Amino acid sequence: MSSTPARAHVAIAPQLLAGPLTTAQAHRAVWRIAWPSVLTFGLMTTNSIVDRVFVGSLGSNALAAVGVGGQVMFVMVSLAMAITVGTTALVARFTGAQSIADAERAAGQSIAMGAIVGVACAAGIFLVMGPLMQAMGVSGPAAGLCKAFLTYTLPGMVPGNIGAVVGSAFRGLGDTRTPLKVMLAANAVHILGDWTLMLGHWGAPRMGLPGGGLAMALSMVVSMGLFMVMLRRSPIRGSLKFENLMPTVSWSWRILRIGIPAAISALLRTTSMLGFTGILSRTPEGMAAVAALPIGLTAESIAFMPGLGYSIAASALVGQALGAKSPTNAERLGWFAAYQGVAVVSAMGVVFYVLAEPFARMISNDAAVVAIAARYLRIMAISEPMLGFGMILTGGLQGAGDTIRPTVATAVSFWVFRLPLTYVLALGLGHGATGAWIAMSATTALGGILAIALFRDRKWQKARV
After folding, report:
1. Angstrom distance (rounded) from CA 35 to CA 107
2. Which residues contact 297 (CB under 8 A, 6 or more apart)?
């Protein structure tokens, strides 16, 4: 077992994590990991906005199709979290404990599992694509477009999964700059692919949504390739040795024991959104509300993505501090990440509240869709601070390996409260899409309250990984 720490890749050297940290040290550590992650997720947001603008030029049916297709893709990403969350937690813990050989083993096992899960998920979605469209209440031209989009996108999920796993290993090391560099390249491929294949520029045929799906798949291939090159230059380059890539029951279970609850949590969120979309499709606004949802989510991600960046910082630092046997530092770093992140999320929430209609008009020229999306943004702005607390402190819990209790909290807020409340307000009381947005905002705030309660009780400090 190696004892060489990945000094160049951690925000605080492991030996410092074991001792008292000053407030300045803690805030600097959070910032060093958070800012590249914030930029990475910001690039994802920019990519999503540009993609939605391109899709919006194809009409409201195309927007609705991509919104539904995106939710299906999120289901697959959620399944991949069964691996990525466990990878980050283990690599962070072993980095804090200065045990790089174990970090390599965890990363190698995760890469192999990512490939297996990617193949299984892509094949499964192909088989149930038709019934899935019916279950989500999507019919007519939108359903056909969604199927075409997914047909071209799904093959990219295998390299996409592998890239996601390697990226999570880098984040466990505390290296968030490498994922940022990869995201820059992948975004360039995706946007240029959309411009060329979806819209038919530079002599290429105008493929429409299938071209957009192909562009997305190509960006995933590029992302995986770059991550593999970077991994060979990293402190955990031994992850790619044959013995580390061969799955074993003990290591697989060690990773999945942490990650499966987090994946279930993400699935609960994603599948609840499928149910939420089904309710929206039955409101008086119908498919206009369904088309407005991805516009609102895309614009809201201006606040959402910084929260994810700080969640990554909380996960890595909490895990590393626990590996260094310092639960006190783990707790302080988790709270400091939350305070910094909530400030950013709240500020960005104000931005999209003020600019709700301009954001919506950037993506759609349908007046009805723009009005519904703008209402979504203004209602959701109220709950943005609690969204930040929920995301970031949940990241800290996951970095500690405590993933079961946040999953229960997700089930409560999304399934026990959100869906029934949405049904009552949107359909039962006849408030339509506005009622749905109110239900979403209220349950977002509930999720933040539950995350604060779980982090404050300190039970996560005793989680086994």
Report:
1. 24
2. none
To 10 degrees, what angle do helices 384-400 and 60-96 make?
Answer: 40
What is the DSSP annotation of 146-207?
Answer: HHHHHHHHGGGHHHHHHHHHHHHHHHHHT--HHHHHHHHHHHHHHHHHIIIIIT--TT----
Q: What mean pLDDT comes out for the span 271-278? A: 85
Residue closest to 289 by CA, chosen among 143, 129, 133, 435: 435
Report the distance separating Cα 169 and Cα 212, nearest Å: 29
Q: 44-96: per-residue pLDDT in tens?
A: 777 777 877 777 777 777 777 777 777 777 777 777 888 999 999 999 999 88
What is the Cα–Cα distance from 169 to 162, expressed in whole angstroms?
11
Backbone angles phi, psi at 419, to 5 degrees: -65, -45
Cα distance between residue 359 and residue 415, in whole Å: 30
For the chain, helix (H) and strand (E) counts, in that order, are 18, 0
Letter string b/e over residues 281-316, b meaning 16 or more CB atoms within 10 A of that residue's CB: bebebbbbbbbbbbbbbbbbbbbbbbbbbbbbbbbb
Structure tokens at 343: 């400030």
Question: How far is 456 from 462, CA to CA, in rounded Å?
Answer: 13
Distance of CA 269 to the CA centre of its chain: 11
The band of 139, judged by pLDDT with boundaries at 50, 70 and 90, is low
Tokens of 195: 């411009």
What distance in Å separates the CA atoms of residue 45 and residue 111, rounded to the nearest whole number? 26
Tens digit of each residue's pLDDT (9 = 90 or more) over 11-20: 555 556 656 7
Phi, psi of 337 (to 5 degrees): -60, -40
Average pLDDT, the chain: 86
Distances (CA, A) of 161 to 109, 117, 330, 388: 13, 8, 29, 26
Look-up: residue for tokens 């925000």?
11
Say how far residue 302 (Cα) sits from the centre of its chain: 13
Look at the pTM and tell me if it is higher than 0.90: no
Q: Per the structure block, which two tokens stand in for 123? A: 């094949």
CA distances 196 to 45, 146, 211, 212, Å, are 20, 20, 8, 9
Would you state the structure tokens that stand for residue 46, as one six-digit string?
């920019």
More confident: 351 or 222? 222
Which residue in this structure is represented by tokens 């603008």?
A: 53
Question: How many Å apart are CA 61 and CA 288, to the nearest integer?
Answer: 9
Whole-number Å distance between alpha carbons of 38 and 311: 10
